Each structure stands twice: as C-alpha cells, then as structure tokens.
Amino acid sequence: MDFIQEHLAGYGVSEQMVVYLSNIIMVLCIALLSIVANLVAKKIVLKIIIHIINNNRYTWDNFFLEKKVFHKLSHLAPAFIIYYAAPIFPLYQSFIVKFALAYMIIVTITVFNALLDAIDAIYRTYEVSKMRPIRGYIQVAKIILYIIGAIVVISNLMGQNPLILLSGLGALSAVLMLVFKDSILGLVAGIQLSSNDMVRVGDWIEMPKYNADGNVIDITLNTVKVMNFDKTITMIPSYALISDSFKNWRGMEASGGRRIKRSVCIDTSSICFCTKEMIEQFQKVHYLSDYVTARLDEIHAYNIEHHINRESKVNGRQLTNIGVFREYVQEYLRNHPKIHKDMTLIVRQLAPGDSGLPLEIYAFSNETTWGVYESVQSDIFDHIFAIIPLFGLRVFQNPTGQDIVNLKERKEYSAGY
C-alpha cells in the first residue's frame, strides 16, 4: 500500500485521490490474486490430485472425487488470500476478517458434508452395509455438523464466544425437541434396528398398515424406503418398525426353502373303500406298488389275527381311495426334484366343511425366487388335479350357471323321451 501511494504521489496526484486510488488498486490486486489462486487450485493442484487418484490401485478414493470433496476444498484458496490481506485495510480489517472466516467455515462444512457422503458411499461397497447400514448415523453427524457450523458462524459475525450461544440453547431445548422429534425417534429406531439386525437393505418386508410389501432399498434417519412388487415406493417411518409389527422374509430366503401350503377340497361323496379293480390299478403305479402290497399284507394279517368276518366291508380294516391318494401325493412330493427334502413335508386332512374334505399339502420348495416358486407350486397342483379322477375321487366345486343349464337340459330331454 505504501509503495503504491508513493508512486501515485510522485505523479502529482492529490493526497485524497491517492488514498482512493491506492485502495482501488489494492482491491483489484487482491481480487486478481484470489482469481489466480482459485485457478491454480482448480486447474493445477486439483488435476494433479485427480490424476494420482485415477492412476493408483485403490478404488475407495474415487468416491472422494465422485462426491467432489477436493473440488469444494479448493474454494478455500481465495478465502485465505482475502483473510491475510485484511490488515492492508485497517478500517475494514475486522469486517473483512469476520466475513472471510464465515466463508471459510461454510466451505469447511460443505467439505465435511461431502466427506461424510463419500464415507457412506465407500461403506456401501461392502456386504456388511446391508446388515449394518450407517445412513442414519451419517445424517445425525450432518445435523450436528450443521448446528455446530451455524453456531460458530453466528458467534464469529457477532464477535462473541460460541460457548455463550451454546448456553442459550438450554432455553430452546423444548423447541429443539419438538422440531427434531422425528429425527430423534429415527435415531433411536435406527440404533435398535441395526443392533438387533431387524431389517437390512435388500430384505423383503411386509407391513400391511403402510401398504408395504416389497424389498427395502434404503434406510435413512427418518424413513425406510420400500419398493413394492408393483414398483410403487412406500416410505415407512423408522420408528414405526419398532412400535408396530412387520414381517421380514429374510429367514425364508436364507433357509433356502419356501413354504407351500395349499388345500385341495375333495367331494366327500366320492370317498369309498377300494375295490379289487382299484387295487390292481394302484399296484401298477410306481409310487404306490410297494405301499399297496405292504398295506394289503398288514390288513390281511390283522384281519386273520382278530378273526374278522370279511363278508362285510364294515368289519376289519380296508384300504380307502382317499388314503391311497394321500400316500401317493406324499410319495410324489418326496420324489419331486423341486421339493426341499430336509424340511417339513406333510399331506394331511383338515376338518371337513361345506366345501368337502380339505386335503392340505404342507411342504417347502427348494426355490425361493418368486417366479420359480409359483411355477413349481402350479406344476405340483396341475398334476394333482389331473390324477384325482384315477383314484375315484372328485374335486369339490360349487355348481356354476352352466351346471344348472346342463341339468335343466337333461331334465327336459328325459321328459321328452
């Protein structure tokens, strides 16, 4: 400044103009120097850093470039120039220093914000991120960062100690609790969800209260994002997963087996004892030949031992078509390549009702993928429905309009005949 003023005075410029012109020239020089520092930081230093990161053997540091951590850090270069040039203007030094510091604090906050995003992105590349997501903790850290940054900026502009502002927050605690209620509840819920391993990214969860039925695609501080199978997205509050019940299908997927639980209703009027012709037919069936032979020998031995009068089928023990059919279905499932052999397999009768006798199949497919599972289940019941008539059984079905029409036509034909 003295150098510029001496040269201006040497040109015969008045003393008042010397002060104005010297200030303008210094401002222009500082502005030019700040522009040069910004260009050097972005065009030279930043490019060198990018080149080093792109050409090393590590991949995690690429996330720092993706989140623009170094780009935002480069904004500090001109701020340092302005900060250290403040003593040149004694009258405005305090004003310049305060705003330069405020700018540097804000830039630092954005740098740490980008750094936290990069840490989250790096963590997501590991499998453990699905079991222990840290997105909620990152958001809490950002909230704390913003609060501390705002306090420091305000205290700097006011020229007060930040502790004085912090002491005043006690009176605002009730307001803060109200404003950040969801965030606080979400933080507590996130800790419980993570520590108890209740839900992970990629889990299939079902929560009818929120019409959620699909895969978890994101877990944040306040919400859990679920993509339903109809491609809609449901946002569930994090604390709702703690306070309300939901179903997580992860256990099914991890076990390698998916349950098949479906009934076939048999018309009870078609159930009967097996005739000789039926037994001969059953002995030709691959899955039944050994069973029928063994059961006939057992029944014959029992009836002889207990001196059963065989003239009436009511006496003693007899094979029934429903019993043989149940055994056939059991053996068919045991030999089916898509049925899990190490899990429960039951073919049982349920209580008969208005819809006949329900014969329930309780088994597990060794395919958990939805489409494959449905195909396996459909193939099994296609076969069961097709073979039911071979056992002299009928599937129960309520009469349809066409059944009534056919009955009416038969009556009219009989009457005409």
Automatic annotation (TrEMBL):
Among Pfam families, the record links this protein to:
MS_channel_2nd (PF00924), MS_channel_3rd (PF21082)
- Presence of the UniProt keyword Transmembrane in the record: yes
Outline the extent of the Mechanosensitive ion channel MscS domain.
Answer: 182-250
| The keyword Plastid is assigned to this record | no
Boundaries of each Mechanosensitive ion channel MscS C-terminal domain copy? 325-391
Q: Where are the transmembrane segments?
A: 20-41, 73-89, 95-116, 137-157, 163-180
- What domain of life does the UniProt record list for this protein's source? Bacteria
Q: InterPro entries, alphabetically?
A: LSM_dom_sf, MS_channel_C, MscS_beta-dom_sf, MscS_channel_2nd, YbdG
Q: How does it sit in the membrane?
A: Multi-pass membrane protein
Q: Where in the cell is it found?
A: Endomembrane system
Query: Keywords assigned by UniProt?
Result: Membrane, Transmembrane, Transmembrane helix
The text of the family note is: Belongs to the MscS (TC 1.A.23) family.
Q: What is this protein called?
A: Mechanosensitive ion channel family protein
Query: What species does this protein belong to?
Result: Paenibacillus rhizoplanae
